[in-house]
Design goal:
The complex is a heterodimer of chains A (about 475) and B (about 450). Chain A is α/β, with parallel strands linked by helices and about 475 residues long. Chain A has 13 helices and 24 strands. Chain A starts with a strand and ends in a 7-residue tail after the last helix. In chain B, a hairpin with a 4-residue loop joins strand 4 and strand 5. Classes of the chains: A alpha/beta (about 475), B alpha+beta (about 450). The interface between A and B is medium-sized, with 38 and 27 residues.
């Protein structure tokens, strides 16, 4: 066994870990990143990127099928088909390019990337094993960035080996054939994103949700357009319904009134949440303080052990790649001796359903809960020229502001392509903008972004286009 | 749902009003029957006011420091059923409770049922929709350059762009201390420049930082009572203070023997029970020292009973529990009673009757007791015996200096009714008794 030493050792090459590694390298820190998988973590390999690739392909195919019949745009195509294996191969190509990209960025920054399974020997020493070798790495500072995994239901265990019936999002994104009937347990954003994509690819999709409505973390104004799409795509939505286990034909469910039925399904996708990988790599052996299943960290991402930081999903909600990235960058700077602490005002969140939902800062309800007196302004895309010209009139932009001084506390939107508004939303809140600031900025015409300016003007009482 | 009004109950002592010192609940809180709603202060003690019903708090009569009349409306709760008050909930909360200040029941909450339009904090949030009218024009920004900022709400972050935040972090500046001159109080680069240039020395590096902050502490409750009482004593009573040195060898020897003989079985004796016994013995010959002086009536009331007040420091401030009928107690009984009362006073559990009715008072600072003090008389008493620190001092015995345990007594007297001569004689009597403790126990 050969031994290595470094100043900074990062466990996990996901968005948190690799960003931490790149920034550390830029700052001249001798850093090593260790991961069993290819660099990029869940996000790049089996999460954000592949799912968006699949969603894009599904959307394109869906458009083509729309043009197979009578089309309002005057376009017609004949009998479109999709070869999902080819689609997945294309998607894998994107993932491979990004894997190589991340490895290249680490290399450029001078940070070493080691592929292997890490196990803590003590708070500063990690043993990394590969199939044929082992190396012990001792570091001054360690960053735990081990991410999260899909939650498995005990009565619906994932069957990875046989490519069986019950699958997680990872397997769903690797399917080479469109299942005829797909049942999805959990109507959170992962289940809905994949469910809508497969519905557009031609699967007969049914979604089972224990709560009373889909996307329970959003208010119903934001989710209503998504529900409309689900209905238009013929997706069965069973709310207030529990999954019970495998049925003779598919998934056994129990509805709110106690009726048990067997939902026919060729594949059952379980997306009921993610759990932090805080018990992997012998992390539990360090005895770090926790908050439930998450590692407890302070505003400098320090754990209860000196010289051990934790970032990303393993530290709690919201489990979002861009949160992990920001934490990774911050921790690298802290290790470099810079006086950093977490001081963000907002973390934008995007749901890539059809239509998309983007939220940033506080919802009206959350803002009221702080005791603040608020004002809101909303602008519908039905009044937006660009949205009309793209057949994307569903949805709206909403601003939540403090009544006393117009400070923007939150921004939300639902609509086609609104994920790109997340940048404007986050910049506005992070810069401390007031509704007058947004209202006073020229927004390019014709774009959906005008909806942001109009929502701010609406909050001031004088929207111009409605 | 109905409205239930709880009035301030009669808390004894024949008082008509009490000072509100603390709320245990806030508007919107759910309370159960018997939960403590708040605390009021009488002349002697803090009294907790419990809830007689379960419900949700909708109105408070005022804020700590306000005076509430006995029988006046204290709190309003929303309760299941009809309640006991047909009025609509009072619109005002503790933040604007001055209506009842010094006016007690006269300022019934129903007088405030019209929502105060000017008081935004009391106005329920308007439904927030796109039809909501525009907010009022935002007022002009304050002057640039580190203007004083509104206090941040709990958990609220200072408003500043990421670049300003980063600069502040690099410079080690807490942005909560920097005034923001931008819209909505946003901290601009210029504000940070001004803070670095003119603010505390953190940005200049090195040296000692001049501190310029002040804090205002409201004098409330117990402290206010102490302040009033001390002012009354000091402004009314012309004090004369006599300091005398006492040889403690004999009493210390006796104390040591008694503690050795009885140990914990009868409770450990301190010097105070001996001093109490000396006072009890001395006032037989000097009854004018164990008395109250009512200067309004022009009357002195001498007391046969010796109720010794013991000035005691508690977390809430100085209080004076009373060992009643010290003349009828043995040394150990006095010691036990002293201990019990001191603990009760320190834990805030002393009853009102245990904090009133003294006829003469002892004040002791224990090991902090200094060489001499100027005790202030516990009005309307006429004498107070102050105990100073015991220490070994050289005493001239006529031929040589001897190391002797000595302790000074600093005694103050009301010079209106006690002459210096009589005061000196009384102090000499105490000295004689303590230096020859057997005299305290000789039955005449």
């Amino acid at each position: 066994m050969s031994d290595l030493t470094c100043k900074l050792l990062i466990l996990g090459a996901g968005p948190g870990g690799y960003i931490c590694g790149i920034r550390a390298g830029q700052l001249g820190i001798d850093a090593i990143v260790v991961d069993e998988q290819k660099p990029g973590g869940t996000c790049l390999n089996v999460g954000c990127i592949p799912s968006k690739a699949l969603i894009h392909a599904a959307e394109e195919f869906h458009k083509a099928t729309q043009f197979a019949g009578a089309s309002t745009l005057g376009i017609s195509v004949a009998n479109p088909t999709i070869d999902l294996a080819q689609t997945v191969s294309w998607k894998d190509g994107i993932v491979s390019r990004l894997n190589a990209g991340v490895a290249g960025l680490l290399k450029k920054a001078g940070t070493r990337l080691i592929t292997g399974r890490a196990t803590f020997l003590d708070g500063k020493t990690v043993k990394v094993t590969t199939d044929d070798s082992a190396v012990e790495i001792r570091a001054e500072t360690v960053v735990i960035a081990t991410g999260s995994s899909p939650v498995e239901l005990p009565f619906l265990p994932f069957d990875h080996r046989s490519g069986g019936k019950v699958i997680s999002s990872s397997e769903a994104l690797a399917l080479t054939e469109v299942p005829e009937r797909l049942a999805i347990v959990g109507a959170g954003y992962i289940g809905l994103e994949i469910g809508i994509a497969f519905a557009k690819l031609g699967a007969k999709v049914a979604i089972v949700e224990a709560e009373g409505h889909i996307l329970p973390q959003y208010d119903t104004a934001l989710t209503r357009p998504v529900l409309k799409t689900l209905h238009a795509l013929g997706v069965e939505v069973h709310v207030n319904t529990k999954a019970k286990g495998l049925g003779a034909q598919g998934l056994e469910i129990e509805t709110g009134d106690g009726t048990v039925q067997d939902l026919p399904a060729d594949k059952i996708l379980v997306t009921v949440g993610r759990r932090p990988n805080s018990d992997s790599a012998n992390i539990a052996g360090l005895g770090l303080a926790t908050d439930g299943p998450f590692l407890r960290v302070n505003d400098r991402c320090q754990t209860s052990m000196t010289g051990v930081h934790a970032i990303g999903d393993v530290t709690g909600e919201p489990m979002l790649a861009h949160r992990a990235m920001a934490q990774g960058e911050m921790v690298a700077e802290i290790v470099a001796g810079q006086p950093r602490r977490w001081d963000k005002r907002c973390i934008p969140a995007v749901c890539f359903t059809d239509p998309e939902i983007v939220t940033c800062g506080l919802s009206p309800e959350e803002a009221r809960a702080t005791g603040a007196e608020i004002t809101t302004g909303q602008f519908p895309f039905t009044a937006n020229g660009r949205a009309m010209s793209m057949e994307a009139e569903e949805g709206f932009v909403r601003v939540v502001a403090r009544k006393a001084d117009g400070l923007v506390l939150g921004l939300q939107a639902v609509g086609t392509g609104v994920s790109e508004l997340s940048a404007a939303f986050a910049v506005a809140i992070e810069m401390g903008a007031r509704i007058e600031d947004i209202g006073g900025v020229i927004h390019a015409h014709p774009t959906q972004s005008e909806g942001l300016q109009e929502a701010a003007l609406a909050a001031m009482g004088h929207a111009l286009h409605i | 749902m109905g409205l239930y009004t709880i009035t301030l109950p009669d808390i004894g002592e024949g008082i008509a009003e009490a000072e509100l010192t603390e709320w245990n609940v806030a508007v919107g809180d759910a309370v159960e029957e018997d939960d403590v709603l708040g605390t009021v202060m009488t002349d002697k003690a803090a009294v907790e006011v419990p809830s007689t019903v379960s419900g949700k708090v909708v109105w408070l009569c005022g804020e700590p420091g306000d005076t509430v009349a006995v029988g006046g409306k204290f709190i309003q709760l929303e309760v299941e059923g009809a309640g006991n008050d047909s009025a609509t909930p009072a619109a005002k909360t503790a933040s604007d409770g001055a209506g009842q200040r010094k006016s007690g029941a006269d300022a019934a909450p129903t007088a405030n049922t019209e929502p105060d339009k000017a008081s935004t904090s009391d106005t329920p949030p308007e439904p927030a929709t796109s039809e909501t009218p525009a907010p009022a024009p935002v007022s002009a920004p304050p002057a640039r350059g580190g203007a004083p900022r509104q206090p941040l709400a709990k958990g609220e972050k200072p408003l500043a762009s990421p670049a300003v935040r980063r600069r502040a972090q690099d410079a080690g500046i807490d942005l909560r201390l920097v005034g923001g001159s931008g819209p909505a109080g946003r901290i601009l680069h210029e504000d940070l420049d001004a803070y670095i240039e003119h603010g505390p020395a953190v940005a200049r590096g090195g040296g000692r930082m001049p501190l310029t902050g002040t804090r205002e502490v409201k004098v409330l409750g117990m402290r206010r009572k102490i302040a009033e009482k001390m002012a009354q004593s000091w402004s009314h009573i012309p004090h004369i203070t006599i300091v005398e040195e006492i040889d403690m060898e004999a009493v210390e020897a006796l104390r040591g023997q008694l503690n050795a003989a009885h140990g914990e079985a009868r409770g450990k004796l301190t010097v105070l029970p001996f001093l109490m016994r000396a006072i009890v013995t001395a006032v037989r010959d000097h009854p004018e020292m164990n008395a109250h002086f009512d200067d309004d009536a022009g009357r002195i009331t001498q007391s046969d009973a010796v109720h010794v007040g013991i000035a005691t420091q508690t977390p809430a401030g100085l209080t004076v529990p009373v060992v009643r009928h010290a003349e009828a107690q043995s040394l150990w009984e006095s010691a036990a009673e002293l201990k019990r009362l001191a603990e009760a006073a320190r834990s805030g559990k002393a009853a009102r009757e245990e904090l009133s009715g003294s006829t003469i008072t002892i004040t002791s600072l224990g090991p902090l007791g200094a060489i001499a003090t100027t005790p202030i008389i516990n009005h309307p008493e006429v004498a107070i015996v102050g105990v100073n620190k015991m220490s070994v001092r050289p005493v001239w015995d006529g031929q040589a200096f001897q190391p002797r345990k000595t302790m000074n007594l600093s005694c103050s007297f009301d010079h209106r009714v006690i002459d210096g001569w009589d005061a000196a004689v009384f102090v000499q009597t105490l000295k004689r008794l303590i230096e020859a403790p057997a005299l305290m126990f000789v039955e005449e």
